[in-house]
Amino acid sequence: MISADAIRGYIDLIVLTLLHDRPSYAYELAKTITEVSAGEYTIKQTTLYSALKRLEAAGLASSYADTSASGKPRTYYRLTDGGAAHLADKLAEWEDTKTLIDRFAQGHRH
């Protein structure tokens, strides 16, 4: 299981990558996060809503009202053009970060 502390700085990146695929609503996003992580990480609703509000306030995502396939009214979120550009930058930064951490981790494996 991955701790909330370990993943805290990457919540926005995770949400943006999911919104890049298609617009979604909070419950669906939470379910997808759990599925993609194969149960290794379950996001708390408060954490997810905070991230969505933060992304919306920053202009990286926008919300709109719609009806889900089940007929329930939902607030959907979608990636903005600025969000797509931000996502590309953050994914490149993640690759650099991962490469750097791997250099240290590989030197200390026994």
Report how far apart the termini are. Answer: 22 Å
- In round numbers, the mean pLDDT is 92
Q: Tell me the β content.
A: 5-15%
Ranges where pLDDT stays below 50 over 5 or more residues in a row are none
Give the total of beta strands: 3
Summed up, the helix count is 5
General form: globular
Radius of gyration: 16 Å
Reported for the largest beta sheet, the result is: 3 strands, antiparallel
Q: Order of SSEs, N→C?
A: HHEHHEEH
Strand order of the largest sheet: 1-3-2
* Helix residue percentage: 55-70%
Oligomer: single chain
Secondary structural class: alpha+beta
Explain how this protein is built:
This protein is of the alpha+beta class. The protein has five helices and three strands; from the N terminus they run H-H-E-H-H-E-E-H. Helix 2 (11-21) crosses helix 5 (81-107). It is globular and about 55 Å long.
Please provide a brief summary of the model.
This protein has 110 residues and is α+β, with helices and mostly antiparallel strands. Helices cover 60% and strands 15% of the residues. The chain has a 3-stranded antiparallel beta sheet with strand order 1-3-2.
